[in-house]
Specification:
The protein is α/β, with parallel strands linked by helices. The protein has one domain: Class I glutamine amidotransferase (GATase) domain (Rossmann fold, 3-Layer(aba) Sandwich), CATH 3.40.50.880. The protein is built from seven helices and 14 strands. Strands 2-1-3-4-14-13 form a six-stranded mixed beta sheet, with helices on both faces. A hairpin with a 5-residue loop joins β5 and β6. α1 crosses α6. The radius of gyration is 17 Å and the shape is globular.
Amino acid sequence: MKLTIHHLYADMMNLYGDRGNVISIKKRCEWRSIPVEVVDVGLGERIQPTSRDIFLFGGGQDREQALLAEDLSGSKGADLRAVVEDGGVVLGVCGGYQLMGHSYETPEGERLPGVGIFDLTTEPRKPDEERLIGNVLVRVRAPETDEVREIVGFENHGGRTYLGDTEPLGEVVAGYGNNGQDGTEGARHLNAYGTYLHGSLLPKNPWLTDQLILNALRRVDDSFELEPLDDAVERVAFDSLADRLR
């Protein structure tokens, strides 16, 4: 049951410690004796999915996003869309999340094409609008059980993302989320997740980390269960921030 983590553009899209998402998945698998391989996928390189994969897409600056948009416009973007429609697991954070939509418009007015995994577009902030910065608390429905859970993270973005026919990842309890107006945060389609939450996201939210791992491994064995881990320290850290934000 080896899991393969595909770290997309690891050398370019790693704002605010997004590489911690790779580390979190890897460690929580190793603690359960689940073999893990991490594969960095750079510019010009094809993705090579197995049957048990997680694709991670971090945040970056506009210059990096412009380079990535061109790289994703060909077969790599088509391959990612096919992975998602086949039930594959993808997590995009901030800039990676924006490029999982239809388009991202830079502050200079350049419209960068996205992969089209989510029905959403991202627009630049207006001259009189501030960046959306701070800690965030989001209420999320767990995919497997429909149970209402919470996640915390840190956002820092100027772009405003507007959803079309796409389910949000969650509802903002504290913070700004997609655009600071409609109370939504992130997006979800099948096993693809997009969010503005850095910080890193997954070490702060172990239940979501386990959900991604479970989604990936159940593509091969739908009865697979993860051994529970002692998350007492993680819960204390989560509660400390979540209680302040509430």
